[in-house]
Each structure stands twice: as C-alpha cells, then as structure tokens.
Design the sequence.
C-alpha cells in the first residue's frame, strides 16, 4: 500500500484510511503497510506506528493488515515488530537486510532473532534487486521450519528457486510473487498469490486472475494476465512507487507527492501511464 502525503510532506492519515478501504473493496485480501511501495525508508518509526493503527482501524474485520517492520538493523527491527504488535496488526513482513550484504548464516540469524521476539505470523521478503543479496532457497527453508514463519514474498525472479521452496517447505507455507508480472508463473509452480503494486489500480482484475487459476480456469487466468501486462510494465517506468502513486492521482485519489530522494513523474512518464490506464478502461 502506498503512503499518502500532504503537499507539505506530512503523512496524510485520513487519505491512508480512505485508500485502505478502497483497496479492500476492490479485491485486496490483506494490506502491507510501510513496505517498499509505502516509502518505508523515509518514514519515521512514529509515522509507521500511526499508519499501522490507522489502517487497522479502517479495515478491521474486512482484511488482514501486515506491517512492514524489516530493517538492516536487527535490534531496530525487533523493536518495531514488538511495537507493531501493540497496534493490532495481523502479521509482519521482514525484508532481507539491505546494504550490509550479510552471509546466508547472517540472514538466518537476523530473521531468527526477530522471529523469536514475536508471536505474530511472519512473511519473509526476498528482493535481491534492492538488497543486493539473494536469500537462497536453503535459507528460506530453514526459516520456514520456525513456528510462526508462514510465507515468503519472493521477488528474486527465479522460478526455479520458488519452485524448490514450494516443493520442500511445509505444506501450509505460502509463496507469494513479489512482482506483478510473475504472478501467473508463480501460481503455476505452487504459489498462493501476489503482494501487488498493480492491484492499487486493477485489484478486481488481479483477484479474478488468481481466482480463475485456482479454480482450474487457466485460459481465463492467462487472458487476464496478458491483458494486464501493459499495466504491470508501466508501473515500473520509474522507481516504485512513483508510477503507482502517479496513477492513483490520475484516477482522482489525491494521494500527494513522493518524498525525496524519490521525485515526481516527468510529463512523458505521466502521459505514458495515462495512455495505459485509458487503454485498459481504468481512466
């Protein structure tokens, strides 16, 4: 979920509540708050906690709320995870430590330390394009044996790795795509769904695609996947979440700007997004 800001750069909590309700009404089963798409690196701890509370209050009983509490600072992640639990979230998402470039053992110990300090369900998040380090299937499988590790958001783009995780992990361990364009392939190797950016715009169609696949209607799932490819692609013509926030603003949600070091879309980027939204009938 993107984080709305006022024009002066402050978090717009009222808009966050509105957006949370909109996403749930349009197909999202759960919301990740203060993740990459929520511009977590530029949110303070206090802002994150207020966002957790705001979204929990807005969608309680209608969707799960997953707090992004990961960090490359293990102690900091432990503290934020504990505080998130007090906000009433349903689970947490923990990203592989970025910048530090830890070994696989370091990744395991980092996660195991945080997990030992919470009873909340945990979704791991592997995104080597941002963290530089890929969490191997073997490390994921070690972590999947811990009692409250229930899922992974896999954005490695490596289908073989995802298939291996699905093959060897406990049956109730869920594998989610971390890339919209990989959703259908990940479903084909046993994945459960997607932690989506494009669902901000196409939530109902994303839900139809996933439901169709799980119902055995692979032809409909493929048709929807191919139809949505232009949207999947245009959501990454500039750093995430600039395109999706721009798209939502074009659709009238008025979610404000992004925070530095991210910058606003260029006129040509905005026009490209406009063309895709119009072509798909969303605008």
Sequence:
């Amino acid at each position: 979920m993107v984080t709305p800001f006022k024009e002066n750069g402050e978090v717009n909590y009222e808009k966050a509540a509105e957006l949370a309700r909109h996403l749930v009404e349009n197909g999202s089963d759960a919301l990740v708050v203060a993740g990459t798409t929520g511009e977590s690196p530029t949110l303070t701890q206090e802002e994150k906690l207020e966002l957790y509370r705001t979204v929990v209050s807005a969608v309680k009983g209608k969707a799960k709320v997953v707090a992004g509490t990961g960090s490359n600072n293990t102690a900091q992640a432990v503290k934020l995870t504990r505080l998130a639990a007090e906000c009433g979230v349903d689970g947490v998402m923990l990203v592989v430590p970025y910048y530090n470039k830890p070994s696989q053992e370091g990744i395991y110990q980092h996660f195991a330390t945080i997990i030992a300090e919470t009873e909340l369900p945990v979704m791991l998040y592997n995104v080597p394009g941002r963290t530089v380090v890929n969490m191997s299937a073997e490390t994921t499988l070690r972590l999947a044996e811990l009692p409250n590790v229930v899922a992974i958001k896999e954005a490695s783009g490596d289908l073989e790795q995802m298939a291996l995780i699905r093959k060897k992990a406990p049956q109730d361990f869920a594998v989610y795509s971390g890339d919209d364009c990989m959703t259908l392939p990940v479903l084909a190797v046993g994945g459960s769904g997607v932690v989506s950016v494009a669902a901000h715009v196409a939530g109902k169609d994303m839900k139809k695609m996933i439901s169709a696949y799980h119902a055995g209607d692979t032809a409909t799932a493929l048709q929807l996947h191919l139809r949505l490819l232009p949207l999947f692609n245009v959501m990454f013509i500039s750093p995430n979440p600039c395109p999706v926030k721009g798209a939502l603003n074009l659709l009238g949600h008025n979610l404000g700007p992004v925070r530095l070091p991210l910058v606003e879309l260029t006129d040509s980027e905005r026009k490209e997004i406009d063309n895709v939204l119009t072509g798909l009938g969303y605008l």
